[in-house]
Amino acid sequence: MDQNGHVRITEVPFRPPPGGPPGVEVWDFARLRERAERNGVPLGRPLRAEFHHLIAVKSHFLNCWADDAEFVVSPGTWLWICAGQVYRFDDGLDQATGTVLLFMPGFLDTATLAAAHLTPPYPTGPILPDAEESAALDAMLDLLDDAYRRTDALPPDARIDLMRHLLAALAFRLGHVRHRRQGLPEGSGSDTFQRFHDAVERDFADGLLIEDYAATLGYSVRTLTRACLAATGRTAKRYLDDRTALEAKRLLVHTDLSPGQVASRLGFTSPTVFGKFFRRCTGETPASFRARARSDEHPVAPRSRPVARSPRHRTGDA
Hints:
By secondary structure, this protein is an alpha+beta fold. It is 45% helix and 14% strand. It is built from eleven helices and nine strands. It has helices at residues 29-38, 110-115, 131-149, 156-181, 191-203, 210-217, 221-232, 236-254, 259-265, 271-282, 286-295, and strands spanning 10-12, 24-28, 47-49, 52-59, 62-66, 69-73, 78-81, 86-91, 97-103. The strands form two sheets. A five-stranded mixed beta sheet has the order 1-3-8-5-6, with no helix packed on it. The protein has a four-stranded antiparallel beta sheet with strand order 2-9-4-7. A hairpin with a 2-residue loop joins strand 5 and strand 6 (69-73). The protein is globular and about 65 Å long. The chain starts with 9 loop residues before the first strand and ends in a 23-residue tail after the last helix.
C-alpha cells in the first residue's frame, strides 16, 4: 500500500529478452515466476499489464482474479487476460504447469481479432474446449512454442511472421470455441458496438446519458441498443451503467475517496443520486460495499486506473 493506505497497482511493461521476437513471448509457469521475481513484480498483488496473457493450464489448478471476479482455471482450460485489465494470481502458480503467451496489442491485427470474436466485449472466464478441440489447440501451441525457442531455424523477420500467423490461428480457433461453447450472440464485434464501447471507455466518467452517446456517434438510441444486445445481451443503457458501477467499485476499494467524492468523479449530480444508482446496480450501498470488499481476503480488483473528470449531468436514471 502507499502512504495514504491505497492498494498500489503495479504497472507491468512488456520486457522482451535481448534477441527475442518483439511483441510476443512464450513462457512456462516456472519462467513466469522467475521473470516476475527478477523484475520485482508481485504476482499476488494487483497488476496491470500493457500486454495480453493467454494462459493454458496443463496440470493442477490456477486461482486468479481478473477484474472483479475470481477464476479457478483447471487442467485443459484456457484463460485470456486482456491488456489493461487488473489481475493477480492467488494460488496454484507454484504447483500448476502450463504455458502463458504474452503479446502486445497490435501484434495481431484487428481483422484477425474480430474474426476470432476476441474484440470487445472481451473474453471473461475460463474457456474449456472438448477433447477434440483441446488436441487441436495443443498442437498449435506446440508449434508456436517451437517457433519461439528455435531462434536459428529462420531469419528474424520470417520467424516473427511465422509466430504471428501461428498465434493468429490459435486465437482464431480458441475464440470460436469460446464463442460457440458460451452461446454468445453472432452479432458480437459490429462496428456500431465497437464505436460505442470505445466512446464509453473514453467518456463514462463525464456523466453522459445514452442519448448523448447516440447523438455524438450519429446513431439512434435504438440502433445502439440493438448493437449492444447483439454483442453483449445487454441494452446500451445497461452496458453504460455496468461500466460506471465497475469504476465506482474500483474507487471505493482502492482509494479513500468518500462516496460523495466518488460521485463527483463519475459525473453524478449528488451523493444521493450516486447512492441510489449504486444500490440499483449492485444491491448494496457504497459504504456497505466498501466495508465488505475491504474486509474480504480477496478484495475486488479493478481493470483500469481511476479517471478524474468534471461532473456533468448524470442523474439516478443515467
